[in-house]
């Protein structure tokens, strides 16, 4: 293994367990079309919200591969969020993320409201989402939260899965 | 908040779709926009609801009508809602 430096991301005041997930409306992209949807309109039971870097970044690809492998979208509704456009989300969903729908937040305002923004070094003007996972209950209350603190970083998938299992019990 | 009764399947910057939008706006009708794929062959959702892959297409749950072709849609909307005032709710 070559040694490499993991970049620490700055501390962030992100949404945590016990808080109500901030409301937002953004284009929600499925395999066939997209339309503006409010988070409150789509949450009517346990729901997984996954923030991720731009579509096409390797972290994003890996996260969706893992979601697919673990079949999370069969267990509960799973929604992604990234700054990528609806057209890019459609391409992403054509390849992976079976059953997942993805919100498009190019301005990163939703991402910032969750405290999970990341100013990408060397890409002027681009603020994207760091990897982050929020598990919501019927009332949109966050029951489990994980936010990446290094670059790159990946969710603790086993911990997410056991939080999902606990909530669905 | 209830969802609008009219769903418009549209393509970004498609002049025929904008024509329908202008009519919806002029009549004060609430509608939900569903943007679809520019590639005609991939618009299966539109084919499923309307029988054709062309946009614009509308689904009006007030009346149970599904329709494509902008001229037909404009004529239908004007005929159904022109004199009824703002009938978006129902």
Strand-residue proportion of chain A: 25-35%
Shape of chain B: globular
Strand order of the largest sheet of chain B: 2-1-3-4
Instruction: Work out the count of structural domains of chain B.
Output: 1
CATH superfamily heading of chain A: Glutaredoxin
Estimated radius of gyration of chain B = 12 Å
CATH class of chain A: Alpha Beta
Q: Helix and strand succession of chain B?
A: EHEHEEH
What is the CA–CA distance across the termini of chain B? Answer: 13 Å
- The residue fraction in helices of chain A comes out at 25-40%
- What's the overall geometry of chain A? globular
* Most extensive chain-chain interface: A-B, 10 and 12 residues
Total number of helical segments of chain A? 6
- Sheet-strand content of chain B, in percent, reads 15-25%
Number of DSSP helical runs of chain B: 3
Helix content of chain B: 25-40%
Order of helices and strands of chain A: EEEHEHHEHEHEEEEEH
CATH topology of chain A: Glutaredoxin
Strand order of the largest sheet of chain A: 3-2-6-5-4-9-10
Q: From the coordinates shown, what is the CATH architecture of chain B?
A: 3-Layer(aba) Sandwich
Protein name (chain A): Peroxiredoxin
GO molecular function (chain A): antioxidant activity; oxidoreductase activity
InterPro entries (chain A): AhpC/TSA, Thioredoxin-like_sf, Thioredoxin_domain
Protein name (chain B): Glutaredoxin
Task: Please provide a brief summary of the model.
The complex is a heterodimer of chains A (about 170) and B (about 90). The mean pLDDT of chain A is about 95.
Can you describe this structure?
- The complex is a heterodimer of chains A (169) and B (90).
- With 169 residues, chain A is an alpha+beta fold.
- Chain A has a single domain (20-168), classed as Glutaredoxin (3-Layer(aba) Sandwich).
- In chain A, 28% of the residues lie in helices and 27% in strands.
- Chain A has helices spanning 39-42, 58-70, 72-75, 86-95, 109-113, 157-168, and strands at residues 7-8, 25-29, 33-38, 47-51, 78-82, 101-104, 117-119, 127-129, 132-136, 142-147, 150-151.
- Chain A has a seven-stranded mixed beta sheet. A two-stranded antiparallel sheet of chain A has the order 1-11. In chain A, strands 7-8 form a two-stranded antiparallel sheet.
- In chain A, a hairpin with a 7-residue loop joins strand 7 (117-119) and strand 8.
- The mean pLDDT of chain A is 96.
- Chain B has one domain: Glutaredoxin (3-Layer(aba) Sandwich).
- Chain B is built from three helices and four strands; from the N terminus they run βαβαββα.
- Chain B has helices at 15-26, 44-50, 70-81, and strands at residues 6-10, 31-36, 57-60, 65-68.
- Chain B has a four-stranded mixed beta sheet, with helices on both faces.
- The two termini of chain B are 13 Å apart.
- The mean pLDDT of chain B is 90.
- Strand 3 of chain A pairs antiparallel with strand 2 of chain B, so a sheet runs across the interface.
- Chain B: InterPro entries: GLR_AS, Glutathione_S-Trfase_N, Thioredoxin-like_sf.
- Chain B: Residues 4-85 form the GST N-terminal domain.
- Chain B: This is Glutaredoxin.
- Chain A: GO terms for molecular function: antioxidant activity; oxidoreductase activity.
